[in-house]
Design goal:
HIT-like_sf, alpha+beta, Diadenosine tetraphosphate (Ap4A) hydrolase, HIT-like
Length: 149
């Protein structure tokens, strides 16, 4: 079995499906490129982690804190009917936590968003509007822009 890298890198599928917006102290924040939903993903910058229980106790607490901060942002920015928060990993094993603002009028309601409809990539204007809605609610600990990985 080849040695496992101890250096974090974002899974290629996540990189392909999302825009990296920036970072919290532990996690990168991604926006899934599907304009049908405000769909964000937190990815802890830890190598070779597939499950929350594999994080150190300190990182587990930090992940929960960042998830709650993001949830507060989404509630304020988008005023959804419901937030869906999930760590599935069936297609991408790298630990990542989905945060999806759901609306009774959205394309998939009340079903899960996965596989319900083909993704509708953001236009430049839609992406700018989505980010502008989120920007005022992100905490000071959030840094815009992509790290090396």
């Amino acid at each position: 079995m080849p040695p496992t890298s101890s250096i974090f890198s974002l899974d290629p599928q996540l990189r392909n499906d999302a825009n990296v917006l920036g970072s919290f102290p532990l996690c990168n924040l991604l926006l899934i490129n599907d304009a049908q939903y405000p769909w964000f993903v937190l990815v802890p910058r830890r190598a070779n982690i597939t499950e929350i229980v594999q994080l150190s106790p300190k990182d587990r607490i930090q992940l929960l804190e960042e998830s709650c901060q993001l949830q507060e942002c989404l509630l304020s920015a988008f005023q959804p009917d419901k937030l869906n928060v999930a760590a599935l990993g069936n297609m991408v094993s790298q630990l990542h936590l989905h945060h999806i603002a759901r609306f009774r009028k959205d394309a998939a309601w009340p079903a899960p968003v996965w596989g319900k409809h083909p993704a509708m990539p953001y236009t430049d204007a839609q992406l700018a509007a989505r980010l502008e809605a989120l920007r005022p609610y992100l905490p000071d600990s959030f840094a815009w822009g992509e790290d090396d990985d």
